[in-house]
Design goal:
The complex is a heterodimer of chains A (403) and B (295).
Chain A: H1 3-17, E1 30-36, H2 47-61, E2 70-76, H3 81-93, E3 99-102, H4 106-119, E4 122-125, E5 142-144, H5 149-162, E6 167-173, H6 176-191, E7 195-202, H7 210-219, E8 223-227, H8 230-242, E9 251-254, H9 259-265, H10 267-270, E10 274-277, H11 285-297, H12 305-324, H13 329-338, E11 341-343, E12 347-351, E13 357-358, E14 361-366, E15 379-385, H14 387-390
Helix pairs in contact in A: 2-12, 3-4, 5-6, 8-9, 12-13
Chain B: E1 3-4, E2 7-8, H1 9-40, H2 47-65, H3 69-90, H4 100-122, E3 138-140, E4 145-147, H5 148-170, H6 172-182, H7 184-189, H8 194-216, H9 226-241, H10 246-266, H11 274-285
Helix pairs in contact in B: 1-5, 1-8, 1-9, 1-10, 2-3, 2-4, 2-8, 2-9, 3-8, 5-6, 9-10, 9-11
The chains are: A alpha/beta (403), B mainly alpha (295).
Chain lengths: 403, 295
């Protein structure tokens, strides 16, 4: 069959299946682009797992039953801003993608944020962390969903300073994310009366931290703050054990530690770490039910908070599209801010004017090997940070959308 | 306390020692590359993947067969080396008559395939591998805390490097090898099986990569991408040392480890580029590398 003859037939099929959509949904398909690191440092904490979560959201929303046609595209941005922005352009211009979702690596987040605004589409970030996305870089086309550097600093940073960890040395990944996390944590440390003795910025990604650890050791700071993520954090903690960091009386503060990182480190090395997350699979019946379904589809691995965040974000997006009967970028984002959120991941919440999604954050401590009942039983809850205190106050971010 | 450029001398000693430890990985890996290039004229881009396979092999031996680190140190190079022999027999041996580039393309492609397969199976976060019991702990040297395992890495890799150098430069077997690359027909006429010698040499080079992988496993996590990050640096080391020069690659490996270590103290942001800056300078002044000879 020639291409020319196929086109009208396919068109007719779409028209039949998309009874509700018609003119309002652009080209009658809602196209979602999941863009993340599919193969590198951040692939296990987001990567293919985020795609699984996105598919679950489409299924649970019941898109097919409601006659909405939803398609998911996947791209690997390799943690490079230039790759990210060229994929974004290609997706928006050629593939007619309506929403870009997930996106780890803050430098890529800021680049795609720019492109999305220029093309007037929609952008929801789950894995990327920089709090600038709802601050000076905020946009009417973007929402920051799961967590951010400010909320991590506010959770882990202040908890540690309050329990006596008042002198800090930072090991910082040398790019937008590390800088933002270091800045936000430093502010929290100083606000609570602590001081920062030094910092070192390591190339991203790094495999050898011995030299940096030695510098941290000689600073005599009580706390070594790891303003990095994924494999970098794992390697730093692992090598820290070799150099006797903890034995020497210093402590690590993993400022961004994911469930998959703890899994890779093993409880033996990770025990006692304090960390802040917005989701853990074993929080309540709903999170357990979701996570068990997820694990079945993802090689038995429990979801990280950012993978769960992709599910929650896409569910809310589809609800907004349904209510609006349109997938026009800024309109959907505005509708998402207007509608309260409710899902099995974060419970009830809302999206602020600056694009910040608000929900509880939790302070966890990694269990000792003896306390764990088996694989993935890693955290115990230390404190719940209520939604209204978990994120930077709207007025402090410097977002021009907030009047 | 006395200071050099604002850094306490003691801290500086610590950093130099760390540089030496990293240098020993560079030396061990670039040695394998130099042996393969020097004797086979193949630019082995799969070296990083073979290093990674060595680490995974150690992990398999431990978790599936219960064989500890010392067994891995022995078996892993043999197992991965034999995969190298298969690759040489089936594929590389067909390329010797062609330009270097074909060997490079083939091994590069193999590296991508191997890494992709491991990543699909094991993910990218990496798997834990514990330091052997007898090498746990650390010595307090006064100026720094030296983990016993890292001290072992330096000593062992020095021994392996100089052993290899001795084997190739000073023994009869080594002289056959060198003669075989100079003039294969003539050496064959003396009744020496040159193709078999070449095959075994490739296997040996690959085995060296696997050995480095086993030694790296307890320090870094066993990770499908561990070789990819390292291989580019190691190539720079080989180029700076002079392609094919065995002693050159050993000395340059340790030297660049030191330079990198110092950069991490004075300007950490540049620590992953400094080697390439040196490479550019060396290539401008001495295109054949520090220890290479123009062919």
């Amino acid at each position: 069959m020639s291409v020319r003859r196929m086109v009208p037939i396919m068109g007719a099929l779409f028209a039949l299946s998309a009874g509700f959509a018609q003119a309002q949904i652009s080209d009658s398909v809602i196209k979602i682009g999941v863009m993340n690191d599919q193969s590198g440092t951040y692939a296990d904490l987001a990567g293919p797992g985020s795609v699984v979560a996105a598919r679950m959201a489409v299924e649970d929303f019941g898109a097919a039953k409601k006659g909405m046609k939803v398609e998911i595209l996947v791209a690997d941005h390799q943690n490079k801003p230039e790759v990210g922005s060229s994929v974004a352009r290609q997706w928006y211009d050629v593939d007619k993608v309506d929403l870009i979702l997930d996106v780890p690596t803050s430098s890529v987040v800021l680049a795609v944020n720019q492109v999305t605004r220029e093309k007037n589409k929609a952008f929801i970030v789950s894995t990327g962390a920089t709090s600038d996305l709802t601050g000076k870089a905020c946009s009417p086309n973007s929402i920051h969903w799961t967590y951010d550097t400010w909320s991590l600093a506010n959770g882990t940073g202040s908890a540690i300073v309050k329990t006596g960890g008042n002198s800090w040395f930072f090991l910082t990944a040398d790019y937008a994310f590390g800088h933002a996390l270091e800045r936000d944590t430093e502010a929290v440390v100083k606000k609570n009366g602590g001081k920062v003795l030094g910092k070192v910025r390591h190339p991203f990604p790094s495999s050898d931290f011995s030299s940096f650890l030695l510098q941290a050791q000689s600073s005599k700071a009580k706390i070594i703050g790891l303003a990095n993520a994924g494999a970098d954090t794992i390697n730093a903690i692992k090598q820290g054990a070799e150099f006797g960091i903890v034995k020497g009386g210093q402590q690590f503060a993993g400022l961004l530690v994911f469930l998959t990182d703890v899994h890779a480190l093993g409880l033996d090395k990770a025990q006692g770490l304090i960390l802040t997350e917005s989701f853990y699979w074993d929080l309540n019946d709903q999170t357990r039910a979701f996570s068990k379904r997820f694990a079945k589809l993802h090689k038995g691995a429990m979801p990280t908070m950012v993978q769960a965040g992709v599910y929650s974000a896409l569910l809310h997006y589809l609800k907004a599209v349904e209510a609006l009967k349109s997938d026009a970028g800024p309109k959907v984002i505005a509708k998402m801010k207007e509608m309260p959120t409710d899902d099995p991941i974060f419970g009830k919440g809302r999206v602020r004017q600056d694009g910040r999604k608000i929900h509880n954050m939790y302070l966890f401590e990694v269990k000792k090997p003896a306390e764990s009942k088996g694989a993935w039983d890693y955290y115990k809850l230390r404190a719940t940070i209520p939604a209204d205190q978990a994120f930077r106050p709207e007025k402090d971010g410097g977002c021009p959308l907030v009047k | 306390m006395s200071e050099i450029f604002g850094i306490p001398t003691q801290a500086l000693f610590g950093q130099l020692l760390i540089g030496l430890i990293n240098g020993s990985f560079y030396a061990l890996l670039s040695l394998g590359l130099a042996v393969i290039f020097g004797l086979l004229n193949i630019i082995n881009f799969a070296h990083g993947a073979q290093y990674m396979m060595g680490a995974f092999c150690a992990w398999f031996l431990l978790t599936r067969l219960g064989l500890n680190y010392w067994w891995a140190l022995l078996l892993s190079p043999v197992i991965v080396g034999s995969t190298g022999i298969v690759i040489e027999r089936l594929m590389l041996s067909r390329l010797y008559k062609l330009d270097h580039l074909y060997g490079l393309l083939l091994t590069f492609g193999l590296a991508l395939i191997i890494q992709g397969l491991f990543r699909n199976e094991f993910g990218s976060t990496g798997l834990p591998y514990a330091i052997p019991k007898s090498l746990e702990g650390a010595q307090n040297l006064g100026f720094m805390f030296l983990p016993t395992y890292r001290a072992w890495v330096v000593v062992f890799s020095l021994a392996v490097c100089f052993g290899t150098w001795y084997l190739i430069e000073k023994t009869k077997l080594g002289s056959y090898l060198r003669a075989g690359t100079e003039n294969p027909q003539l050496v064959q006429a003396f009744g020496i099986n040159v193709p078999r010698m070449v095959t075994l040499t490739y296997g040996f080079g690959v085995g060296l990569a696997a050995l480095a992988g086993v030694m790296a496993a307890p320090i870094y996590s066993v990770n499908p991408l561990m070789g990819e990050h390292l291989i580019i640096v190691v190539f720079a080391v080989v180029v700076i040392g002079g392609m094919g020069s065995i002693m050159g690659s050993i000395l340059t490996g340790f030297m660049l480890g030191l330079v990198e270590g110092l950069t991490k103290v004075f300007y950490p942001e540049a620590s992953n580029t400094v080697i390439f800056i040196i490479m550019a300078i060396v290539l401008m002044i001495k295109p054949a590398g520090l220890f290479g000879t123009q062919r």
